[in-house]
Give the backbone structure.
Amino acid sequence: MSEKEIYGANPNLLYPCEKYDHICFIRNAVTHPGIVIGDYTYYSDLVHSPADFEKNNVLYLDELCQDKLIIGKYCTIASGAKFLMNAGNHKMAAFTGYPFKIFNANGWGSGERCVEDIHYKGNTIVGNDVWIGYESLVLPGSRIGDGAIIGARAVVSGTVPPYAIVAGNRATVIRNRFDDETIALLLKLKWWDWPPKKVVDHLDILTNCNVDTLRSLSNTVDERDK
């Protein structure tokens, strides 16, 4: 994509805001094959370099489990949010969860873990246009739907419905962001999959909250543009 073809922010920039160096498009910073980040998703960190997201915020991701952290497009991740991956889990189907095998000790183990020692809960998947609040914690295997909001210091485990607002430990649904019709329209549009120019052309609708214009847009959306 040439500079002339870019509409909106350049998704290939690490730091897309001239005045805010604590914000970065983390797709351009991560290198681990188990981390997949969509375009325009950013992380903001007021303490550490946001480019160190992979090292500081994705914990216990290793080759033993081969699990993935998948985050969609246009997500906003606040300072201190962390994702715990499966290798941090201990075996639960035994009388003890103590990891004897990781110690190179006579009668205990060889110093290595095996998959059977880990309570595996699958990939962690975050949808599109999700806001993950300050110092929130997302546990292994969580599924966060499109448009959801995760409250500050919430602990997410399991499934968060699309466009739900959750808070607390364990994170529970406080309310939905919109009514059922509006949520259905947004999930039909899937605006995050539009070409950047189409997003720019419809910012007046996307950044507003007029259901009538959203309904009209939904009726005229061209699937070929996605």
